[in-house]
TrEMBL record:
InterPro entries: AryldialkylPase_Zn-BS, Metal_Hydrolase, Phosphotriesterase. This is Phosphotriesterase. The modification N6-carboxylysine is found at residue 147. Coiled coil: none annotated. Keywords: Hydrolase, Metal-binding. Belongs to the metallo-dependent hydrolases superfamily. Phosphotriesterase family. The lineage of its organism: Bacteria, Bacillati, Actinomycetota, Actinomycetes, Streptosporangiales.
Length: 325
């Protein structure tokens, strides 16, 4: 049985169980937190306890694994996630490497790379591979997948370099990829085209945020490459309401695509996008944007729309386990 690295160490892929394929524990940029959060709105102990409570609640509903694509650009900080993982012993947390950037490279990679001022092989690839094979910083925690972004501006030079580095780290290690895409500009097609040219096994790619689209032609075009559709923003009705997301998944299941979809919310225990007012903002803007919306509401709606128990099991259990195998 192949294993996958989680925050607490390797787990048999057959033991992952019900898996939410795109959830953040924390989205808290460390530089912002260190300068403006501490002494103001950030309370480390409260937030760790709050995360343990929120993740414990979804584990109690049957979820066994969450997949956290928080990378550089979203505030990855593994020691805090380790504390949370220790407090939720029946939930696996899988973490990622990569870079979250809509347009530009972090300056730390701008001048180092092939043909640049410091002319060396792309250091991003080595950094990603080290996170996957040796561990992240000195935490001992290994990332198990790669993350990048192709947003509405498409393959800007910075985004293209990150995506190629992610693709090459995948080719070197076999680690799967999740790419954040913009369904309204159909940027998933750009991502898959680049990955195909880089020799990526497209069956190891999740097209993140595909579920914001109800365009079946676009979604089938993505899935027909072998990629998996991330139906992963349940509760973010501002992008696509739950009823529409459910109808789209039911239509795709009816056309034989249950083996090409995964489910999630893209939720977080805390995000710093609203300063300290995360819980209030989430409650007003998107009250269903929480880890248990799928189990509380969506699964029943899928069943009522003709999706079968087997298809739900496929999307929640088998497809995630295949992705990490
Ligand atoms: Zn996300």
């Amino acid at each position: 049985m192949p294993t996958v690295n989680t925050v607490r160490g390797p787990v048999d892929v057959g033991e992952l169980g019900q898996t939410l394929m795109h959830e953040h524990v924390f989205v808290v940029a460390t530089e912002h937190l260190d300068n403006y959060g501490k002494g103001a709105w950030w309370d480390e102990e409260f937030r760790v306890a709050d995360a343990i409570a929120k993740l414990g609640a979804v584990a109690a509903k049957g979820v066994r694994t969450i997949v956290d694509p928080t990378v550089w650009g979203l505030g990855r900080y593994i020691p805090r996630v380790q504390r949370v993982a220790a407090g939720v012993p029946d939930l696996n947390i899988i973490v990622a490497t990569g870079i979250y950037a809509f347009e530009e490279l972090p300056h730390q990679y701008e001048h180092r790379g092939p043909g640049l001022f410091i002319d060396v092989p792309d250091p991003m690839i080595d950094d990603f591979v080290r996170d996957l094979t040796e561990g992240i910083a000195d935490t001992g925690v290994k990332a198990a997948f790669l993350k990048c972004v192709v947003e509405h501006k498409g393959l800007t030079p910075g985004v293209e370099r990150i995506c190629r580095a992610v693709a090459r780290a995948h080719v070197r290690t076999g680690a799967p990829i999740t790419v954040h895409t913009n369904s309204f500009t159909q940027s998933g097609l750009l991502a898959l085209d680049l990955f195909a040219k880089e020799g990526v096994n497209l069956e190891k790619v999740v097209i993140g945020h595909a579920g914001d689209s109800n365009d079946l032609d676009y979604l089938m075009r993505l899935a027909d490459t072998g990629a998996t559709l991330g139906m992963d923003r349940f509760g973010l009705d501002v992008y696509n309401p739950t009823e529409q997301r459910v109808a789209t998944i039911a239509a795709l299941c009816g056309r034989g695509y249950a083996d090409r979809m995964v489910l999630s919310h893209d939720a977080a225990c805390f995000m710093d996008y609203f300063g300290g007012a995360w819980d209030e903002a989430r409650g007003t803007l998107a009250p269903n944007w929480r880890y248990d919306h799928i189990h509380d509401d969506v699964l029943a709606a899928l069943l009522a729309s003709g999706v079968t128990d087997d298809q739900i099991e496929q999307m929640l259990v088998f497809n995630p386990s295949r992705y990490f195998s």
